[in-house]
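Section: Multi-chain targets

For targets with more than one molecule, the full set of components is provided together so that the structure can be written out for the assembly as a whole rather than chain by chain. Components appear in the order listed by the source. The example entry contains three components.
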Amino acid sequence: MRILKPISLAVLITCLIALLSCQREERILRPSPPASEILNSVQVSGLNPGANSVASPPPPKYYEESAYSVSEGQRLFNQYNCVGCHANGGGGIGPPLMDNNWIYGSEPGNIFATIVQGRPNGMPSFRNRIPEYQVWEIVSYVRSLSGLLPKDVAPARSDQLYVKPPEQSMPNQTPTGITGQPEAKQ
Amino acid sequence: MAISEPIVVPRTGTPEQLARAWAQPPGFWGWFKNVHHTAIGVRYIVTSFIFFLLGGVLAGIMRFQLARPEHGAVGPDLYNQVFTVHGSTMIFLFAVPMMFQGFGVYLVPLICGTRNIAFPRLNAFSYYIYLGGGLLLWIGLLIKTGADAGWFAYVPLSGPQFTPGKRSDFWAQMITFTEVSALAVAICIATTILRHRAPGMTLNRMPIILWEKLTISIAVIFAMPAVMVVSSMLLMDRTINTQFFNPSSGGDVLLYQHLFWFFGHPEVYIIFLPGTAVISTLVPVFSRRHIFGYLAIVTSVVATGFLGFSVWVHHMFATGLPQMSESFFTAATLMIVIPTAVQFYCWMATIWHGRLQLKLPMLWVFGFFFTFLIGGLTGLMLAAVPVDWQVHDTFFVVAHFHYVLIGGALFPMFAGLYYWVPKITGRMMNDLLGKIHFWLFFIGFNMTFFTMHFLGLRGMPRRVYTYLPEMHWGTLNLVSSIGVLFMTAGLIVFLVNFFQSKAIGELAGPDPWRAGTLEWATPSPPPHYNFLELPTVNGREALWDATPNQPVVAGVREDIPEVLVTNSLDSEPQYREESPGPSIWPFLTAITVSIAFVWSIFSARGVAYGAIPVVITLIGWLWPRGHSPTPMPVDSRLEERRWIR
Amino acid sequence: MASAAPQVLTSWIYAIWALQGRHSALHAAGPDASNIEWLFWVIFFIILAAFILVILGFARAAARTYTSAREMLPIVHDKEGDRRAVWAVGSAITVTVLALFAVLVLSVITGKKVEGLTSKNPVTIQVTGHQWWWEVIYPNAQADQTVTTANEIHVPVGKPVVILTNSADVIHSFWAPSVHGKRDLLPGYSSAFWIQIDQPGRYRGQCAEFCGMQHAHMGFSVIAESDSEFAAWKAQQLKPAPEPTNADAARGREVFLTHACVMCHTIRGTDAGSRIGPDLTHLASRQMIAAETLPNTRGALAGWIIDPQRIKPGNHMAPNPLQPDDLQALLTYLQTLQ
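Its structure, encoded as tokens over all components, is:
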């Protein structure tokens, strides 16, 4: 029948489109986190003898490619009271998170280690307090505070009182380390 | 205009010349250049019917999930997308494009007695834009970006904080596409009705369907901008950090609801009034008499269109607004019942004092009477603020609006399809299959939606992806879900009937129903020039009230596409005007506009840079061409000639 | 399927005719809901009469003029009939307008009666909607007289109670059908409405404005009890959590304070003070958990703690993969929180 050709064409195109589903809209409600050997391979300092070491293994791409994951990170950043020390990125008791200065490294593994292990001078350790997948979500959100995430994944303005540009409007800032120089990629 | 003596005016052309002048180009690219209203009208009807079937599939998924408590077939994220896209598809991609745009674009020029719709290229553009909006929403669903905040997407849930990603942006921009399309068609239809009617069709003799299309066109022009504003405000909140709906920064969440429902309520009358127009067209034909109470019905149609703008707060009774203001809207909502009741009584009187021939379309008309009546009466309950406090946002209101929408639009749609498909395809549809379709659909519909009244009263809210077994809602939900099977069976029968009759159905001829309106004065399917002789009109039912020597219009050129422009009130000929021929520019402009719209979801630059190709295609569209630079004054006469029926 | 048919039929008949239940608009437990129910039935009978009359009208019209001719017949004109029809239609319109006016008047009167409930010294309850649970506070000028709980509201029988609404995130809607109509909880707005329950008992409610992924599982209950019971409940709620009396409960408290629980929940009397999630100080005094989704039993609590995403996917409580001994101890401790 003449009608079958356009119908089968439409079905084919539909299947193709469905295969190209958008990572941005992926929502995993109960992610299984990567193994925590990541903590053993993170370098907190950029200095080491000889040549630069192998980079720490990256987390699953889901956390930085899913807008839902980053928005969960934003929610947790508020609810777990990161804002108490870091405000909305401007800092206070703790250092600012929306600038390009990363004391302990800007890679996701580094930030993960910072949150889980805690750091001298007041950063608490959240080991066993925040589930690992939620730590990864917060990591993605913290990176978005300095504009390191693509615009369509970073959160838009929140419904809170407006104190800074939303993360999707933050300019991308090349991370620097404690020395003020751009970080050498590990 | 009366003529005392026949005047012989030499014809300027032949039927072959007419066919050549009005021919639409063939082939693949010819499809995109077609600007004739019958072709565009058929596209609207077919496309919106496909969206209806797609929306129905989503409804089937919902009912499957809800058939058992804690079913687990569909998770909450997918379910939220399913019910949102179901509602948005049915309202924006099916109901308005079918009832107003599809039926209107196809029928209005024929019923007016003219050769093409006004602004044919704008009409073609409107179809491509509508298709673009539909594709945006559905491709979004396929790539996990389906809108998921409900078909009216209340803030803050649909706002930037609580819907991450682009889901609400796709929804908001789909609104922009479909609203531009509806506005374009409203302009075309209103102009055709006001300026292109056959001579003799004064306002007092205009068929009710033309009154209704004119009223709805004006309602669209006033209502659509409100939804465009609110969806754009939502889009701006989500992309460029405006604060319209942010309570912390001085914005207001209720503002969204007011703006949305200021559109939303007229929208449902934009869906319902075309249904009543179909009924007002069919009841006289199948009662074999002029309609009773023409003046009352016309007044009711216009009054409903007008009063539809005064009731929007009845969607917001539970928000805690002051009681006195809410009571005002109760009064307005009850008042709008009166014009509809008037129409019901006039239809009843027409049948009572006529001769009922219960053909297949009329069976659907009776289905409308039963179904819409129930829906309208439960609307009385919803109008009372205290009762609304109990049943708002429950399955009771889901039952109500499905009764009024399916009763008020779908039953008339099927009545209209069985009535007009013989005109469109040239072949009658099968009577027995049509009756089977009716009964399957009627039984299934009542099974599915009547039970929902009880569910709502027993406390089941709407938009829930599941419910607890302890609530004892399982049995009613199961019955409701089984009804879907009957409706699906009915739709399959309809599709079989349609394709079979298109191929081998009984030939319809020009006027199988011996009806009174002008579309039946031309062969089925109509040629591209619509009428061999442009008709004139002598009464409210043009064909029934025609004299044996009813004059026809002579002097309109037949070697180029030309239409007669008449006066708005008395429809006296004023001048002739060339009607634009086939053109690729509407399609190209729709492409550039779609690119600009979709780009602006992702970046504000899309608005600025996307406008450049739009301007280029608009220049191509508006480039002056054609055979005569200005409209020429009329030297058309009315020639007494026996009408070829 | 055939054997199930009689059961389906009888349960359907039961469902229609026995519209009773603790969660039904037609099972009023107080003056608000019963006024609304009265108005509902009045309007119902008006529209039932209208429906029957109109359907009979169409049926009569169809029956008296029906012809089964196959050909389309010639047009008829019925001047005499039209004259009579003018009177008939006119009277029908008049009756319609009067009926509508009656509905309007009754609606306004009922609305005034429902809103007219008032009292000099009412129990005040602040309900704040969260995604997807209800924060319930009995405000008081003194902080140590303020009751904070979640998902369960206690009110004294027979007395007007005022409820103040607010929302922490999106729009929710507070609806206990046996008690009153619904009121939306709008962020940025605070509205007040009165309820009164005249029969002691437990009345269920559910969120009635789509609020996201777990809108379907956002229930609450309103418990009406005598004055003395209410006072006792309130006094108990004001106390901090009791000290654990055995080693197992002590270990359970240790588990609570060293795992993720402490990030979101408050137990007054311990170091846990977070206000993101429901207050658990008197968890064991509540009959249901997870916003009226699960009964408050040891097993259900265990399942909820281990994997809330299985029961309410998308809600804001993360899975807690505890060791079995830790879980048992935690459950023992939570069950001491009366």
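The first helix of chain A runs from residue 4 to 19.
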